[in-house]
Amino acid sequence: MADPSSVPQSVEDKWLLLPAFLRVKGLVKQHIDSFNYFVDTDLKNILKANNKVTSDVDPKFWLKYTDIRVGRPDRTDAETMNRAITPHECRLRDTTYSAPILVTVSYTRGKYVVKKQNVQIGRMPIMLRSNKCVLTGMNYDQLARAIECPLDPGGYFIVKGTEKVILVQEQLSKNRIIVERDPTKGIVQASVTSSTHGGLKSKSYVVTKKGHIYLRHNSIHEDVPIVIALKALGLQSDKEILLATAGNTEAFKSIFSPNLEEAAKLGVFTRQQALDYIGARVKINRRVIGPRRPPWEDALEALATVVLAHVPVEGLDFRPKAVFVATMTRRVLMAVQDEKLVDDRDYVGNKRLELAGQLLALLFEDLFKRFNTELKSSIDKVLKKPSRTSEFDAGQTLQFMGDHITAGFVRAISTGNWSLKRFKMERAGVTHVLSRLSFIAALGMMTRISSQFEKTRKVSGPRALQPSQWGMLCPSDTPEGEACGLVKNLALMTHITTDVEEEPIMRLAFMLGLEDVCLATGAEMYDHNNFMVHVNGMIIGLTRTPLHFVAKLRKLRRAGRISEFVSVYINHHHRAVYIACDGGRICRPLIIVERGQSLVTAEHVVLLRAGKMTFDAFLKLGLVEYLDVNEENDSRIALYERDIVFSGPGRTTHLEIEPFTILGAVAGLIPYPHHNQSPRNTYQCAMGKQAIGAIAYNQLNRIDTLLYLLVYPQKPMVKTRTIELVGYESLPAGQNATVAVMSYSGYDIEDALILNKSSLDRGYGRCQVMRKNVTMIRKYPNGTYDRLADAPQEENGGVQKRYDIIQPDGIAGVGERVDPGDIYVNKQTPTNANDNTAGMDGSVVASYRNTPMSYKSPVAGYIDKVLLTETENDNTLVKVLIRQTRRPELGDKFSSRHGQKGVCGLIVNQEDMPFNDQGVCPDSIMNPHGFPSRMTVGKMIELISGKAGVLTGKLRYGTAFGGSKVEDMSKLLMEHGFSYSGKDMLTSGITGESLEAFVFFGPIYYQKLKHMVMDKMHARARGPRATLTRQPTEGRSRDGGLRLGEMERDCLIGYGATQLLLERLMISSDKFEVCACETCGLMGYNGWCPYCKTSQKVAKLTIPYAAKLLFQELMAMNVMPRMVLEDV
Amino acid sequence: MATRSLNDPRRQVKVGTERVYDVANTEFPGNYPGEDHSWNLKKFRKDLKVEIQRLSRRSVEFDLVGVDASIANAFRRILIAEVPTIAIEHVYVWNNTSVIHDEVLAQRLGLVPLDVDPSQMEYHNGVATDRNTLVFRLQVACERRKGAAREETDPEKLYKNSNVLAKHLTWVPQGEQESFFADHPPKPTNDNILLAKLRPGQEIEIELHAIKGQGNEHAKWSPVGTASYRLLPNIQIHRPIPPPLAEKFQKCFSPGVISVDPTTKEVKVADPRRETMSREVLRHPEFEGMVSLSRIRDFFLFKIETESAYPPERLFTEAVTVFRDKVKRLKVAAQALAVEAAQAREGEADADADAAMETD
């Protein structure tokens, strides 16, 4: 034992492990690891499971896949010399960044077996920065040559030119028993969702119903009494069943005994009787071939393959399954007796995260199976022919199989619809377009987790912050509104596991002295000395020395003998040891503490700092290990060294690497978040993604649909460790504004900001908006094609103003100013483009019709870039990027990093701004009323730290749970002749007298948000109307009217303003003159009633066109609306 | 020396712990019974004092004593917003293959201070003439420097013209300008302002028109970096500071403000001008009641920094000129108004008379 008096030395800078970790794993390692696992391992497993194609016609024929691999991404164009491709080229050319899937096959050709290598069966989209991607392993220089940003995390796909992310999906873990209570119905149920590698999924329950326990499964019509189920599984005697479920506990025995009676009442005593009982209730899947089987065989098959499918039944040995059902029953009994012994669905340890790799694996398996059936049918088609000129070569068929796999991948990823009937999977919205609004938006998207839970249901449980999220999922970063708490984000050091083989681990467990559970009776299983051992939900054995067993397994893990992602923990309530090595578990690294001492010492940190040690070395030396949520909850983790407990049952086992890693990458941008009211941090997480700034090093080479850039982005004065680690300093989104917290002019109420006009003149908040405009130069089936034409000449030889920027090639010149209405691509389409009757040679071009692209925005822009390229299907693509540079104006939205957004309320000349003794004018003025209710103390501290930073010429830290101390910062202010409190004495710029109050004055990092007035402001007097109703159109994009809605209407009614109501609702909208007949009440025309055949009593009246339309529609439905007319 | 003591409470703006007291001047006519505070040129002349404290090539510091805050502020505002200068306004981009966009480059060019005496130019009235427009050219192309070492990474050594600086702006004389500006050709005041960065193959070819303007239209025409003032700090020690606390007391102020006698530890205010009003002394309870801080209401420590064509000492007089022009204009307007009012009164009387006639 270590001497308890030796106080553990604080290892300075152990946070350096974090950058080391990120260097190895990167910020989006979960996506990349998952994809790599899929491409390298899972693909081969899928192939192995579906590797043979035979023919129904020729029994001697077979084709076997022996190997599969994914090649390097290449260009698909037919006539290309250089096949190397970069992701950026795909983005620009609207193509897919994909690599060929190559297989090795051997098959019979006549009498011979032929082997063919590298046959392409399709193309797979490649995840950027995965190990198949060309960018992996490139240095800065090479990345620059590939026009790729070194800070871009990768982890997404490029499909048809758009960047697509497959979001992480959260699910309940498979193959684990979940016990729940329904207090309203008084039901306790244990459920298991079984999932095997074949993709089969089924849910089995053990439930209580009126004091009895039943086994329930979808494939059995009605609930089977548990005793019958256990009898069918081979536990013959009642004694054995009682022991296997209730053990020797009297309480459980009494709860369980009615079940035994029930079985006896139903006359089920033997296994055969039980099987017959179940067999009569099994849903039979009609098979056409073969004779009818007796019901007990159906029961046997159902029990062996569908019920609890994940527990293997080898050679009709039902013992493991019987033990599993018995365990489930016991868990139900425990929950009946003690209602606390239920599981929590929302507990993060009971969750699994599904990543791109798993989803792609399912998709590939589906596509590959379909590919094989198609291959088989086309082979059959050939073999069916009685005589052939040459020997049939299946390799030829294989080569000309079409592109179903490629198309399947592209369709699924670009639409996000994963509909795989084979696996009963129907999911929409799996993929999303990577948001490139700001660097942080893109990064935040890569760490996002979406839940399968329905958004509309009003339950708080799944949305609430779970204590087990600690360190794994960011507590701040979640959206507001309907998806609140359902969409989560990973914390900084989180890692998601991939599958690890379980057989070696089971073998190892037996070698460590496990007893096979199949050899044990119930009495032994539930003996108070024995602990059951589960591996990935399967019960495999018993141990008498669980602590020892777990310790030994952990030692082996730390020594690297088994994967570092295998987790072992003891659950004392269940009296069980759980070993998990399945994929999708959330885990994070922690420093191991032994004998009260952190294993990571100052010497290690020195080596780390010198670059002589990597994170992997720490892992290998057993100084650091990964813990998943379950094991984390079985450990004692100290936050700081001073919290380490040396001995006793609460002995510390691990030490946190750095507390601020409980936050994610997005929340990590907030300075002093631990001083803010927590919702404010959540708001900032949403807003940080809307901030305009720099998005990537290749931002000026990109042609995105919409790109917002800040002209002069600055790195924040007050930064955090996270900011340094994610590269926010290199791609910032904001500026350090000098802020005076005071009221000014009344145009600053409700969070409005006052801006200094001179600051705007000098470039504060100036941003650029670049918009992509695309057109295709199409070739039509009849041989005609679009063309680009130069500007049309007027009679006097001049050119119309709106064509003046068109160059001889028919496209506006780069750098030209585009005024509203100007034409920038003068495209012409043949008038007979859809006419297929003409000659196919394209010689019959009747004439061309102008289909130009004209500039719509009300503000002039500049042509930034023009791209002419060819797409994958040989159409010419024209992309024109138009740029606007905007200075902030009234109504533009700004926000600090503390969830404090506001719009610009007034722009004030510099001479009217207050100034301090040094003559400094603020860039913006913020109203102090923003503080009391928001309680964003972090913002105030940011100001003080920032001010101290400016005065000392250093950047300061606002890292969560650390950072520069307020007291130190205030001292610095004082030393530089400023007030300790950060408040300055200002002079009014208007009166020239001192202000009566001291004003909190200093730099705060402000973000300009993408919501700008120019894109939103809208008004109309007259304008377009909808064709059907003749009412004004809706929405700004259609120059629509502003709706006088129901509530507004009610106000006018309440006020009695009938004429105004009439004007708003009819005269200014869709007034229409109709002729109505006073006799029949129907509408006529031209003063004539076609129903009464008279024009005598026809009156003219004005009604809304919509009303007229309604009457006519009713008439079309055989309803006759009559108007009753009266003189007023 | 000013005629009134700095310790006159009426001259003091009091600085408290949480706020500032007595911000406004109370000495206006009728406020104090029996005192005459009507404006008096003789008294004003006696009280007014302007004294330069420090003058450098780019800045001037001077005291302005004996005027009201409104007057001092008027000069400050005029300096920032209404003293004209010359700046680039129109940018004609012939070619720009650099990474910096045309609009951004144009904005940067506008902010370059030009060394042209604004009095020599007229305001631009829509038509460019050689009296109101100066033409500059910026034509820079970047090339590889031959013979640079292979492993060299410094762009300056690798390439020619890797940085486009203000000195690359060349003046193109128009009409009479050549002779007119012969002894002082227009150029940027600072040669080393970075405008853009170039790499081999990139070039910039731009024509620029500079015109006269004022800071209230765009900050680029503001002649000053900052023009501001602060009030003279005043520290009154009411009770002697206990010797053990003398050092601490001294530290509560800016260096050099408080002198402590090395032997007696007697504390004296040495140079209140240096005080930055950190109010540190008010934060410590042990000094409560011993000292009071204030500032002198009509004692302005003016500071003007400039990077413009004006030498700093000329700026203030230039502001005074603008100020006088404004006063003149106001005077004319006021007189016109008076005349108008008189006429209106006459007209009204006439109309009344007419009306009376008609009713008759």
From TrEMBL, chain A:
Component of the RNA polymerase III (Pol III) complex consisting of 17 subunits. PANTHER family: DNA-DIRECTED RNA POLYMERASE I SUBUNIT 2. InterPro entries: DNA-dir_RNA_pol_su2, DNA-dir_RNAP_su2_dom, DNA-dir_RNAP_su2_hyb_sf, RNA_pol_bsu_CS, RNA_pol_bsu_protrusion, RNA_pol_Rpb2_2, RNA_pol_Rpb2_2_sf, RNA_pol_Rpb2_3. Residues 666-1038 form the DNA-directed RNA polymerase subunit 2 hybrid-binding domain. Pfam families: RNA_pol_Rpb2_1, RNA_pol_Rpb2_2, RNA_pol_Rpb2_3, RNA_pol_Rpb2_4, RNA_pol_Rpb2_5, RNA_pol_Rpb2_6, RNA_pol_Rpb2_7. Residues 174-354, 433-496, 533-594, 615-659, 1040-1125 form the RNA polymerase Rpb2 domain. Keywords: DNA-directed RNA polymerase, Metal-binding, Nucleotidyltransferase, Nucleus, Transcription, Transferase, Zinc, Zinc-finger. It is an enzyme of class 2 (transferase). It catalyses: RNA(n) + a ribonucleoside 5'-triphosphate = RNA(n+1) + diphosphate. This is DNA-directed RNA polymerase subunit beta. GO terms for biological process: termination of RNA polymerase III transcription. One of its GO terms (molecular function) is zinc ion binding. Its EC number is 2.7.7.6. Gene3D superfamilies: 2.40.50.150, 3.90.1070.20, 3.90.1100.10, DNA-directed RNA polymerase, subunit 2, domain 6, RNA polymerase alpha subunit dimerisation domain, RNA polymerase Rpb2, domain 2. SUPFAM superfamilies: beta and beta-prime subunits of DNA dependent RNA-polymerase. It comes from Exidia glandulosa HHB12029.
UniProtKB/TrEMBL annotation, chain B:
It comes from the Eukaryota. Keywords: DNA-directed RNA polymerase, Nucleus, Transcription. InterPro entries: DNA-dir_RNA_pol_30-40kDasu_CS, DNA-dir_RNA_pol_insert, DNA-dir_RNA_pol_RpoA/D/Rpb3, RBP11-like, RNAP_Rpo3/Rpb3/RPAC1, RNAPI/III_AC40, RNApol_insert_sf, Rpo3/RPB3_RNA_Pol_subunit. GO terms for biological process: DNA-templated transcription. One of its GO terms (cellular component) is RNA polymerase I complex. It is found in: Nucleus. CDD domains: RNAP_I_II_AC40. One of its GO terms (molecular function) is DNA binding. The keyword NAD does not apply. The keyword NAD does not apply. Residues 59-333 form the DNA-directed RNA polymerase RpoA/D/Rpb3-type domain. PANTHER family: DNA-DIRECTED RNA POLYMERASE, DNA-DIRECTED RNA POLYMERASES I AND III SUBUNIT RPAC1. Belongs to the archaeal Rpo3/eukaryotic RPB3 RNA polymerase subunit family. This is DNA-directed RNA polymerases I and III subunit RPAC1.
